[in-house]
Fold this protein.
Amino acid sequence: HRDLHSFPTRRSSDLWHYYDPAQLAQVGLCTGWSGCNGLTLARSYFEMPTGPLDNAASTAVVWSAQFYIDEVWASAGCGTAEPVQIDEAGPINGGTVWPGPDGRGLDTVYSSGSSGCDADIPPANVTSAAQDAANGHWPTLTLAMKSPNEGDKYQWKKFVVGAGSPTLNVTYSYPPNVAYGLGVANGVNCNGTTYAPDGPTTLVAAATDNNNPPLNPNLNFEVSNNNFGSDVAAGSARIA
């Protein structure tokens, strides 16, 4: 797996925005709380590098992907876990303004990290979005973070950016290369068709892996009658 870190941006409904990794990420409705300073409703976006998922030879299979970030303040305080929603989003840049390129919802997690009780949010499941990045060979994946109820001031939260927060943890692999050298040991070729010899038959093939470091791929085989009309046998073998 790989841990991938981000470049964040924040958007607010009063059209104030920044594109800066040195600021706290803010989410939700800030009204009636000290320190709002005219800010109303905020969302934060995170541009996560996904270059390791981009292999020109094949498309990565994402087995799991989790998004983590450290919550450092919540209007509800330490005792009440309030939700934050993670969405898949479109690209961002320094000119992106409210409401931002928000997309489909991925996960909603509950956390109560605040002043004196900082805590990571529970891992948000963003597997499908990471697979989208792999399928599209994207250099980055943008995730949006917002309040599920943007009219609820108790869902107002702040998150630290830096020192591993946020992190996208992805477990993935690449499928092996196409098998080659397929044949039948001691087969008899007659007019371009290979026939198996009498007695036990050994199928032969080779394959190479497409991961770094390489893994040992399995070879699966089927034996059938009448041009795959009915199976006679099937099995697999691992290449050492």
Q: What stands out?
A: Confidence is low (pLDDT under 50) at residues 1-8. The first helix runs from residue 127 to 136. The chain has one helix and 22 strands.
